[in-house]
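pinning this so it doesn't scroll away 📌
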Amino acid sequence: MPAVPQNSACCSRRTMLSDLGMGFTGLALGALLADDGIAADNLSPAVAADTTHPPDGQPHHTARADSVIWIFLSGGYSHVETFDPKPALNKYAGLTFDKTPFENPVNSPLHRKRFRSVAAEEINVRDVYPVIYPMQVGWKPRGDSGIEMTDWWPHLAEQVDELCFVRNMWTTDNDHAAENQIHTGRHRLDEQQPSIGAWAHYGLGTLNENLPKFVVLGGPTRSDTRLSIDSLYLGPQYAGVPIALDPANPLPFGKRQPGQSLQQQQREYELIGRLNRLSAVEYPSDQKLLARIRAYELAFRMQAAVPSAIDFTHETQQTRQLYGLDQDNTKIAGERLLAARRLVEQGVRFVQVFPSPYGVWDSHQKLRDNHTRLCATVDLPVAGLIHDLRQRGLLDRTLVVFCTEFGRTPGLEQRSGGVDGRDHHPNGFTIWMAGAGLKRGFVHGATDELGYHALGAGHYVTDLHATTLHLLGLDNRRLHFPGRKRLEIDDGRVIHEVLA
């Protein structure tokens, strides 16, 4: 009988180590040491072969923020009726752009330079409606900083001196694939990139080994917006982990079966881990398999940590009211934002919050009714979050980002006989940030007098990404991945003007 070759999978050193293993605890320890950049030579063969793992998980420079709460309103809120009021819309209401004393924005070279429509340009009229539609709400200067905000944000207006507005954002997609673009930086016609949350996860070590680094609350809003939390070529282990705000069942994929004890489930996970590691010996480059190994190990630890993180029973009545948990119209957003505070408090790096369902801010018609109602659902909870972070001393180390996928047209949407709405508008819109490392009570950038174009160079969405990562201590241009070369626009540039 011929001798078995020394490199045979059945008796190789790799196979023996994988078969014997160190049990569930050993796998957990290996993953944690890998996250901390320690003892890389002693990792299991499968984990050691994971070429997607960052070198050390350490920041590139001194971080100003430990965590990010990224709040996204799906559908595109109107910038001119929220955070960038435009009196000229009222003064010239009913006139066409060419009847005002301003340059016709449709003829601006910025329009062709930045805008990219999937539909043929000759049939796309969605962002060029020429009849000016007046503002649907009042506005006034707020706080000591005197920043103008509309009357739909009475609670947030009380926090305006903590906020840092960027009023010259722009993007290129004029349809709702822009929901993915604001998170990935790529137009839907191009090869997609990992989301901003995935890059943060990829670049940094953990602050709490019992919780994911990247948590998602209320999303993704639909299957076709999965890209907004995806990690793509970084590997599935860096994607966002959606969590349900049900302490009894926050992780349906990890819930114990009826009658199953904790010890039985642990043995089940140990067996699954051993089987997965056996497979990993033969397929060391299978990123999905490596991610699955980590997922099972993390899922077991999360069963104790996650329910505690989202359990509000120990929050005071005052705190619950601060977030609007006692009111039907603010409860959903309030619960998600309170959970976000609790998660960053316990060391989660990046929490992506969808306080509203998919597309609800998309006010093609009845803008006044829609925005009046929708602003009331998030105004109190978001203001409560800023106040709560500040009073707990968390705002100095937490970055809050509040954004949407695009603004709304200065012109009246006239499709289908429209008389009271605005269409999608990627050419210029407003986001705001607050917290770690930022100027407070500050406005950077502007749109033109009609709110059409972001003036100057403006800021493409990846500038927001670069700024976020910079405050976390990461240089966006140094987050390289083997075999992948990103475009210049993918890296973006830090908005230094908003940094304290």
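📌 and the second one:
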Amino acid sequence: MKAMVYRGPYKVRVEEKPMPKIEHPNDAIVRVSLAAICGSDLHLYHGLMTDLRIGHTFGHEFIGVVEEVGSSVRNLKRGDKVMVPFNIYCGSCFFCARGLYSNCHNVNANATAVGGIYGYSHTAGGYDGAQAEYVRVPFADVGPSVIPDWLADEDALMLTDAYSTGYFGAQLGDIVQGDTVVVFGAGPVGLAAAQSSWLMGAGRVLVVDHLDYRLEKARTMAHAETLNFVEYDDIVVELKKQTDYIGADVAIDAVGAEADGNLLQHITGSKLKLQGGSPIALNWAIDSVRKGGTVSVMGAYGPIFSAVKFGDAVNKGLTLRMNQAPVKRQWPRLFEHIQNGYIKPSDMITHRIPLEHIAEGYHMFSSKLDDCIKTVVVPNAA
């Protein structure tokens, strides 16, 4: 089969790989209909994540058709069209029983924190991802869901990570009626977090980024106020001005390890890899939220040290909440919002490319070319 493979930082290509096989009675093999390139994939592409091995296939956002099921699978059959959350989880361990699907204890022998993730290095279990024609899906009775007839394929695709993660980020903010919410990052997760904040009762939503085309998307898709941080001497001071010098009630970091805005932090975190990522957006969130406020962290960071302003968070009495999103837990409410016409997750998609052009797709997304926000990958494009 054809699959994207990693050949080193900034080097990906399409190669022939062996077809995945049923390795356990609970497995399924899914023929990928649509996949996507995620901002988190760029952290891999740039070589920021640990234990990323040559030959690995990325891709944790996908939908497809079931081709084969293991002998123990009861909820799926050949021919079912399914949406698959990026979390790989068993559904029965201590953590899964508490809805912490992203922290499953049985799917990742290499870490004590995150569970399994498709296509996200060996720190997340080493599972091959879905930027390929076929993918092996473990615990197939637990993760995948048959796509409802009324749900458009591209909307379903966005619910496998990006939109569900943004919605979860707003949930973690504990937003109450009338709250002011500031979202750092106008990528797909930030757009979803901003839009979701309204659904949870926000009275005001501000989005911070430095790319005008992404800020325009935040205005049109999420109906948010926007600030381009390069236009201000100090974005934290500006946010204080915008909130009567009190600060926002909730701040959401939807940027993560490759945040711009501070040269030293960007070089040590993103270039020299002396930190687990550049914590600029997270520090801005800590500084700009009010005392007693809440900071929600959706941006991805590596497992090593990061220079986070934790003392300021302590002294301000902040609540910090974070995790990889337990995606499937968000789907029932998101299904309702889509059916009611409140959201259309596929509105964030700007580009669609065949699998054969994935190297160009990564370059375009990484270099922020052609106003790229979200790219869908089509494995069998005509």
